[in-house]
């Protein structure tokens, strides 16, 4: 394949990607999204509740959440390793920060520092939990 053919193919691929991304920006989020702040984990091992500082979720400002974790039977989970990730599915980008659990305060509560959302729209935040009941993940949908 010639250099020109490879270049043309790369440009066509980038154009198709940009077009697809652009179309996703105008797509509406699924109508059946659950925006509740208490959710069961995907595998059913945990139940999690998010409590944003001040109870509302601000835009363009660093803030803190409390993540309450309990087992499916309702026992608080204090000894857990929790990873935080998120992003905007329609925009194809992640969170502008790298939030993380900074401390466990007991009774299943974990402080999450570094939360920030830089624009309105549909956001997804995922907590990957590893504790005595196993490894599982909890996904929260947010509408900002």
Automatic annotation (TrEMBL):
Residues 59-126 form the YtkA-like domain. Pfam families: YtkA (PF13115). InterPro entries: YtkA-like_dom. This is Auxin-binding protein.
């Amino acid at each position: 394949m010639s250099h020109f053919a490879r270049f043309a193919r790369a440009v066509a691929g980038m154009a198709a990607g940009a077009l697809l991304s652009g179309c996703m920006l105008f797509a509406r989020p699924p109508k059946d999204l659950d925006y509740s702040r208490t959710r069961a984990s995907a595998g059913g091992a945990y139940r999690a509740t998010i409590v944003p500082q001040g109870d509302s979720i601000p835009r363009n400002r660093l803030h803190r959440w409390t993540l309450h974790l309990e087992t499916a039977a309702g026992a608080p989970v204090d000894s857990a390793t929790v990873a935080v990730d998120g992003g905007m599915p329609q925009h194809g980008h992640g969170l502008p920060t790298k939030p993380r659990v900074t401390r466990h305060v007991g009774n299943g509560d974990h402080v999450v520092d570094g939360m920030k959302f830089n624009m309105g729209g549909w956001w997804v935040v995922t907590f990957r939990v590893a504790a005595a009941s196993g490894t599982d993940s909890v996904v929260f949908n947010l509408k900002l």
